[in-house]
Amino acid sequence: MNSGEIEKYTSAITLSDMEIFVFPELMYSLVLANIMSPIIWKWRQEDCFKKLEGKSSYKKLMRLRQFIMDEFDFNLDLETWGLTSQETELKRFEKFISPADIAKSNALFGYHGDQYYFDVGIRRHFGLDKYNSDIIPYWKTETLEAMNAFRLKENYSKAAGECVSLAALYAAAAFVVCGIPLDDIYMILTPLHSQNFIDLQDGVLTNNRRLVTKTMWFNGTAISDKAQRALRNENVTVVAHNSGYVHCLYDDATIDRQRYLEFKDKLNTYLSADLNLTTVANFLRFKQTYQKFFQICRDCHGQPHFLKAETLFHYEHGSNYRVADKTFEKLLAEVSDEDFVPYQLPGRIRCDDLDRFLEKKKPDLTSSEGKALLRKVIEKIIPEAGVFVDELADFIHIVPKLPSADKNFVAAEPIEISFEQSREQIIDYLGQIRGRNITADLAFYAYRDMETCDWTPFVKAAIERNPVSLKMTELMTVENAYSWLEQMPDSSIYDERRLGQPDEVANYGTGDGLEKAFLLANIIREKVPEQDIEIISSGNEVLIKTSGQYRFLSTKDLRKRVNISKTGEINVE
Description:
Number of helices: 27
Structural class: alpha+beta
Strand content: 15-25%
Shape: elongated
Distance between the termini: 15 Å
Oligomer: single chain
Largest sheet: 6 strands, antiparallel
Number of strands: 18
Number of domains: 3
Strand order of the largest sheet: 8-7-6-5-9-10
């Protein structure tokens, strides 16, 4: 591998958010690695999914949401995978992307997001103000195995992961468990978030552990408001799909051009709602300060009775019914008669009158004419009616800041697998195309398949980007660290001939002997940098040779000889 290739392939091992930004094909490689994982295929046998056999993919997806909510926590402990520095990362990637472009697109290198997103500094928001300005965390994306292994960490009772990990998990599980074709799943990355758009019914967006349907997106609740933040306020940096990717900074795009244009149309449709009384009610739920300008009218034995809008919204709390949707009449039935008055309330718009106006005139708030039409109706009641109309228009029409479609679309072989195939058939297919499809090839590195992959990227990652194991052992001698590893359980979080990185072993407190050997090598390079290191894996035994010798037992049955020079050169035989 040349220097560019080695950086890309070693990034498939560590999968930091920065690495995925620079090498966007890694995002889908992680999805494929999760699809290959035996863990996700076992989910099919869970009772909750077995009961849904023969049911629609949508029903399965809704059940998957609850499963992930039950089994996974959202983890935003930025020190989980240790710290690095801006200088180190910028130097590493300067031949791929300029520091100025990185600063425009990455939260840890100058990007602060929209003011709506942060009203405090980014470093303080993430607890980084306790370090000097050059220190930043590794935002690493976890494989499914690493997410699952959080159960082994102190103070964790569930699996866990950050937003990119959860997006990759959802994409893989939607395919394997719910039977949703990869063609219908689009991954959306922004500087501060990662989520998926699933082309199912009116569209579904994943958001960390949750799913957001179009109805939920526009319901005006606090949860929906948080779900909207990324697409409402940030530039989309990468869109990834089984046909390829498009990147905000790169001229070449490998995603199928027609699929990308269709995705843009579908996402725009999902992010726009019709203007009717329901969407106005949702807006008032979101912007409570406007509720005082509206009233609800009901018929009471042939006589109109009136109710303050804010009173009705108060009744929503603790109720299963909502204002202006199909459960509206049931909500009205819960209201105390004492809250109604037999006269029209002054200084308030009647919602039934507004409903008739919207049905008849259908003002288009994407046009100045439509805005003027609505403003004329409400301006006698609502001060600064123009502001109200603009805010309502922004609420029901979100324009995502997607990468331009004016790219050089390079034909690439799509990943064509079916949920009707077995796990073994999918792995075999990906193995067959990896020679001509770099995403498939990188997937085996993210999967940590040490039987078929070049070991050099794994070793390079192990000795250069695993700061947690160094931090944990900074007060230990090499001999102390060896004793610590010997006392640690010998089981790997990865099955078969797959390996965890040193920080995975350190974080989860367990590892196969070969994994422990790489962790010890990382420690030796830190504490005794003038020594060369040789690691000999001879099947069931691993030997580390430096000025001394250290032995571990392994069940991985891998046979390699790894030489790491004191200057960091790696040779694998």
